[in-house]
């Protein structure tokens, strides 16, 4: 029955640790800003996953709260530094971040781009369904974002009377 409960489990220490780590995260987020947990780029996502892993190992292993807190703070300040450097040096941003990629241009699926991004047509169709697209004529564009998310830009009706602002596609690669 040790896999359900063991008298050696540090339950009280874990609960206290949860409160302390929670307070540490709140304080660090207030210092670094909400962007600390944003998902704008792949490395933002990696930082968020790494912080989650540190929290997990701190609460469930022999890692001390101070050690875990310092590791979280280090990653958050590193993410903040990268964000600052990207603004100052746009070439760094292009080097470490993927530019969004156009997967559909209007009602045309760009098969070469799908192949480059290793995305199946069925996955794009699933995203169209998720966005409540009823037919391809409603689609203005489908974009693979730098975070790995797929955005569907579409009209509410199939006659496309709505005006589509091409500015929404600025920075999106048309060819891989």
Automatic annotation (TrEMBL):
Location(s), subcellular: Cell membrane
Keyword RNA-binding belongs to the record: no
Pfam families: DUF421
Transmembrane spans: 12-33, 40-59, 65-85
YetF C-terminal domain span: 88-161
Keyword terms, alphabetized: Cell membrane, Membrane, Transmembrane, Transmembrane helix
Bilayer disposition of the protein: Multi-pass membrane protein
GO cellular component, one term: plasma membrane
PANTHER family: UPF0702 TRANSMEMBRANE PROTEIN YCAP
Family indicated by similarity: Belongs to the UPF0702 family.
Protein name: DUF421 domain-containing protein
Organism: Cryomorpha ignava
């Amino acid at each position: 029955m040790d896999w359900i409960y063991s008298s050696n489990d540090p339950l009280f220490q874990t609960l206290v640790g949860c409160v302390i780590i929670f307070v540490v995260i709140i304080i660090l987020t207030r210092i670094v800003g909400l962007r600390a947990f944003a998902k704008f780029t792949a490395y933002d996502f990696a930082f968020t996953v790494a912080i989650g892993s540190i929290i997990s190992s701190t609460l469930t292993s022999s890692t001390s709260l101070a050690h875990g807190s310092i590791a979280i703070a280090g990653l958050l300040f590193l993410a903040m530094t990268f964000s600052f450097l990207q603004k100052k040096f746009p070439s760094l941003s292009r080097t470490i971040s993927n530019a969004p990629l156009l997967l559909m241009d209007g009602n045309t699926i760009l098969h070469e781009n799908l192949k480059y991004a290793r995305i199946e047509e069925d996955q794009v169709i699933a995203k169209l369904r998720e966005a409540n697209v009823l037919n391809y004529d409603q689609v203005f564009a489908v974009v693979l974002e730098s975070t790995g998310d797929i955005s569907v830009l579409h009209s509410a009706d199939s006659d496309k009377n709505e005006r589509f602002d091409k500015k929404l596609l600025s920075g999106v690669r048309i060819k891989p």
